[in-house]
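Escalated from tier 1: thymidine-5'-diphosphate holo job.
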Amino acid sequence: MPSAGLFITFEGIDGAGKSTHIAGLADAFRAAGRMVVLTREPGGTPLAEKLRDLVLNDAMDPLSEALLMFAARRDHLQQVIEPALRRGEVVLCDRFTDATFAYQGSGRGFDLDVLRQLEQWVQARPDGEPLRQPDLTVWFDLPPVVAAQRLAAARSPDRFESQPQAFFERVAAGYAARMTQAPARFARIASDQPKEQVWQQVHTAVAQRGWLKGGAA
Ligand code: TYD
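Tier 2 regenerated the structure:
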């Protein structure tokens, strides 16, 4: 029987340190014999990458921002995520809808009911199948003050990264609220630790679901 597709998303405030662990998990899945699609939001298709460029760099009102995030997501789901899951592949996606609830909802204060409605439309699947949601969301939980120190050393900020720490306090609270609403979907990773220990938590979260059988740590 072919493997079922797996949809795993990665979340956290800017500076939480997702990237190296996403790459590590991709290697672990490949070592276990799985095909892996590495992708990100906003982005992941030519159209969605254009939308990413706009939404991360151009000023706009909160509804436009939310609509563009979900427009990018719709294209990404249709062109990349759903086809890969149908082929039984592992989709590792750097951010997804939880980021919209955390950044546009909690961070910007945009209406959560509107976001819930957009989520229903954009993640709908045919034939009465349940809404498309990640099989697992790995949430890198890091105190915003620590993330700010890491980011300050790193790179020139985009529209979100340049927000004050209070914004990231709200974003972090938004992630915590999303986890409360769907606890079984989330793995909270205590990310204020050395990289190796963070990696062990990530690996364990996936392995204990039985998805890395035969894979190397
Ligand atoms: P990020 O994924 O951190 O990429 P990079 O490491 O290249 O900066 O950046 C994407 C930014 O977009 C991040 O600040 C969060 C923001 N974002 C939203 O505000 N809403 C969303 O729905 C998504 C997917 C991302």
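Residues 62-86 form the longest helix (25 residues).
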